[in-house]
Specification:
Helix content is 17%, strand content 30%. It has 109 residues and is an alpha+beta fold. The chain has a domain of 74 residues. The strands form 2 sheets. A 4-stranded antiparallel sheet has the order 2-3-4-5, with no helix packed on it. It has a 3-stranded mixed sheet with strand order 1-6-7, with no helix packed on it. It is rod-shaped and about 75 Å long.
C-alpha cells in the first residue's frame, strides 16, 4: 500500500449544484467525476474513477474534503438514476395539479 504522503494530490472542482442540493465534482487532472449528496441523505456516486491512487481534495465555503478511499458505484447507474426523478418531474407534476390535468378530458369544448 502506498503511503498517503507519496500519493499524487489532485484538487477537485465543483462543476454544478443541482436543485436537489446534489453536487457534481470534477478533477481536471485525471478526469475523476462524482455526484455528492450531503447529509441527511449522504451518498457519493462515482461517475468516472480517474486516478484511483491519487488523493482527491477540494472544498467550498471554508469546508474542505479529503477522501483517499473511494467506493466505485455500479457502472450501470447513470446521472439520471443518481438524481431523483422528482428533480425533473416536479415542475410538471405541480403544473398538472394546478390545471387539474386529470379532469381536462371531462370538459366540454
Amino acid at each position: 500500500m502506498i503511503n498517503e504522503d507519496e500519493q499524487p494530490r489532485h484538487e477537485m472542482v465543483l462543476e454544478k449544484t443541482f436543485e436537489t442540493g446534489a453536487e457534481e465534482w470534477h478533477c481536471p487532472t485525471c478526469g475523476r467525476r462524482f455526484i455528492m449528496n450531503w447529509p441527511p441523505n449522504y451518498k457519493r456516486n462515482i461517475l468516472e474513477p480517474g486516478n484511483e491512487s491519487a488523493v482527491h481534495i477540494g472544498g467550498k465555503g471554508g469546508v474542505s474534503m479529503n477522501s483517499p478511499e473511494a467506493s466505485r458505484g455500479d457502472n450501470s447507474e447513470s446521472l439520471n438514476a443518481i438524481l431523483s426523478d422528482e428533480l425533473y418531474l416536479s415542475p410538471w407534476i405541480k403544473w398538472m395539479d394546478e390545471v387539474k390535468f386529470d379532469n381536462l378530458w371531462d370538459r366540454d369544448i
